[in-house]
Amino acid sequence: MDRKSPIVVFVSMFLQGCYGSQAQLDRALEQQNGEGGGTDVITTDMPFSAGYGSRCVQGANGSYSHQFVSTKYDLDLDTPNDVNDLVYAPMSGTAYVHDDGSHGFGRHVNLDLHDGTYLIMGHLKEVFAGNGTDVAVGQILGFEGTTGNSTGDHVHFGRHSGDAKKAGGLGASLEGLQVKMFDATTGTDAEVMTTDAVCGLTGGHLYKSELPTAHWHPVGTFLKRPGDLLVFERTSGNGVLAYMNEDAFLSRGNSFTNVALISDEELACYSRAVPVYSLGYVRALRDSAGDAWILLGQATDPERKRLRVDETGVAGVLQSYGITAYSYDDIDHGADSDIHSYPNAGRAGYRDGTLLSQAGKSDVYVMNAGVAMPIRDWDTYLLMGFGGRDIIRVTSDELNTNILVKGNCATDTYCVTHEDVTTCGGNASEENGNDTEEGSQETGELPGDADTGVDADQPVDAETLTVSWSTPGNVRADWITIAGTYLTASGVSTPWNPVLAEGHSATAVVYSRYDATHGDRFRFSGAYGLGNVENWSCVAPFPPGILQGTVRATVNGIAVPVSATADPDSQGCQLQIDVP
To answer: Rounded to two decimals, what is the model's pTM?
Structure first.
C-alpha cells in the first residue's frame, strides 16, 4: 500500500484493535475471502485520463507493503506531490467512499463491479463522487494524495474480493487484473497484468493511461473544476463564459445543483467568452392581453429581451429558466410599459442545458443549441456529471410544442454519444440548433440546415478540425501554446501565427477551425514553458524528429493522423495534419 513506509506501519491502530497483529489480520481475511488468487481476468484502464504518465513505484508482492492479503497483487502509481491531479473511474460501477483518511488505505474509493469484486483507489486527498452512487468509466472520482499509511502522493490501485461497502483493508487483493496502458519506458502499447508490471522506486516503468474522459458538454451546461469556486457556462461557438461571483450566477435563475465537474483538459477545449460580473434578472409576467412573458436582463441592459411563453407546457419551460409556476394563473401580472420595454425576441422554448424526460419513457434529452438531443445510454449520462441534475418531466404534447428539432438515437440523429463527450469539440452539429434567437422558433427556421448539419454561413463541405496537445507526462506548465500556419487546398496560406491558442498553468491546449475542407494542410507546433525553460512538441533533427507530449487531432470528431515534418525556415521539427 505504501511505496515508502516500512511494513510495520501498514496496519492502522483501528485494524490492530479489531484483529490484533498483521498476521492475525491476514489469516482472518484468508478465511473470509480465500487466498485472493482468482482465475478470472478482467481488463481495465488506469485511473487517470488518457496521456497521463505515472511511474509504478511498487507492484505485486512489493517488499514495502504489498506482502499482505489486502495488498499483494496491487500497484502503487506515483503522482506529483505538489499538485492536485484527478483520479477517474477506470470502469463503470458503484462508488463506495471511505472517508477516514487516518489509517490503512486512507481516504479511498471502492468501485463495486457487482461481481463480488471491486477496484480500489487509495490514498486520495479528496473524493467528489457520492457514496453509493453509480459512476461511469472515465468519470471524475477525486484528487490523488497521500492520506493513510503513505509518505508521498500516489494512488494505490488493485482489484479486491469482498464487500465494497467496507474499508479496503478488509478485502483480499486478487490476481487477474489486466491494465490497458502505454509503456513509455519501452515504447510499447499493451495490456499488462498487475503481476507483470515493472515497478520500483528507481527502475519502475513509466506507464501512460489510455482512459477516455469527458472533453465536451452541451451548450447551456454549467461547469466547474474540482476544488474551484468559479462556474462556467457552455456557450455557442464551442466557448465558455465565467460567472465571476455568486450573485451574477444566481440572479440569472441558475442553480448550483446543476453544475457538473470538468477537468482542466476539457476546459482547454473551449474558447473563453467575456466573463460576467453584473447582476442578471429573470422573471415571468403577464401583460394586459393575457400573454405570459419571460423577461431576461436588467431594465438597463441593452441586450435585455422578452420571450413569449406558450400555455402548453408553461410549467416546464419556466422551470428551465429557474422560475416556479404551474399554470398561467400562477404568473403575476405586470405593467405593460415595463414588459414591452423589453424587445420581443419571439417564443420561449426550453433553455439550453435543460434535461428533459417524456412521461412514461426512460429517454433523457438535453437541450443543446435549441435541439432536444437524446443521450444514448446511462454511462454517457453519468460521464457528463448529470447524475445529480434536475430532470424536467413533460408530456409528449409539451415536448413537441416547445421544441422544433428532436433527435433520435435509433437513426443516429442529434444523439449524444460517448464519442461526442470524449472528443474536444463534441458533437459537430451543435451549431445547427437555435442558439441565436429564440424568436426563430416563431417560424420554425433554424440558422443552419437541420437535415444536413451544415451551417448556412459555411461552404457545403466545411468540417471542424480540432487539435489538442498535452505536455509530456501531463506536467502543469506555466504557459502552453499552439502556433501554426494553414494552407487551403486551393493554395491560400496564412502567415505563421505564434499564438493560435494558449493556456496558463495548464497541461493541455486546444485549437479548432470550423472551415476545414478536404485537401487542406495544417502545419503547427506546440510549446510550453517551465520557469525559464522552453520546450516543444517536436524536437530536431528531422528526420525523424522526436515527438514530445501527446497530440490528438479530429475532423468532425473522427481521429486523423498527425505526422512530423521539417520546419522550412530552420533545422527544427514541426507537426502536420492533412485534412482527409
So the answer is: 0.70
